[in-house]
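To assess whether ligand presence alters the predicted conformation, the chain was also submitted together with 2'-O-acetyl adenosine-5-diphosphoribose. Input:
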Amino acid sequence: MGLQYNIVILTGAGVSAESGIGTFRDGGGLWEQHRVEDVATPQAFARDPDLVFRFYDMRRADIQTKVPNAAHLALARLEREWQARGLGSVTLVTQNVDDLHVRAGSRNVIAMHGEHLSAWCTACDQRHRWTAPLIDRPACPACGAHNLRPDIVWFGEMPYRMADIDAALQAADVFVSIGTSGAVYPAAGFVRAACANGVATLELNLEPSQGSHWFDESRFGPATQLVPEWVAAMLG
Ligand code: OAD
C-alpha cells in the first residue's frame, strides 16, 4: 500500500442550492420565512408542535422532488475513485439534512445535523426512514407510541457523531469546506481544529465565509463549477 492521503469534506446548504433547495442565511433563505427560534429548537417543538411538524413536513416533501447536482456527483466520484485506487479515505461530513449526497452515490457520509428522511421515536429511541408527514402523529413502527419527531438536530442539541468527526479530522491530510457560511458551531470550528492538527485547508464557497481567513486557500464561485474542477484536479 502506498502513501495514504485522507480527505475530510464539510458541506453546507450552498452545495444543494443549485438543486433548488434554499439556503439558510442568503437573501430569500429559509429563516427569513420562518424565524429559526419558531421552528428549530426543542422549546419551539414543545410550545407549538404543529408549526414545527408542518415546517419539516413541507421540507421533507420538497427535498424528494429535488435531484443531486454536479457538485454532489463530483464528491461521490471522488470517494469512489479515491478508494478504488487505494489512495486513502474520503469522509463527507454534511450539515445538510437533505439526502442528496447519498443519492449521488457518496457512502461515507456523516449527517451531523440529522436527516429529513428519518423519524426519531423519543419513546423507544429507534430511528426509521420516513418519507411521509409526521403532523398526524403516526405510530412508531417499533413500539407503537405516537412520539415520532423529525430526526433533526435543533439549536441547543448535540450534533451527531462528533467523536467520528474528530477522529476523521485527526487523521486528515486535507480539510475542504464547501458551501457553508461558517455561522453555526461546532461545524464552523472544524477549520481551526484542522489548522491545529497541521491539516491543509481549502474553502470552496460563493463568497468568503465567516471563518474565511482560517483557510490556507479559498476559491469563490458556484459549487457546481468549483467542486467538479477541484475533484478533477485531485483525480488528475
Ligand atoms: P447557510 O445558509 O448559512 O450558508 C450557505 C453558504 O453557501 C453561504 O455562505 C453562501 O454564500 C453559500 N452558497 C450559496 N449558494 C451557493 C452555491 N451555488 N455554491 C456555493 N456556495 C453557495 O447554510 P449552512 O452554512 O449550511 O442547521 O448553515 C449551517 C446550519 O445552519 C444548517 O445546517 C442548519 C442551519 O441552522 C440545522 O438545521 C441544524
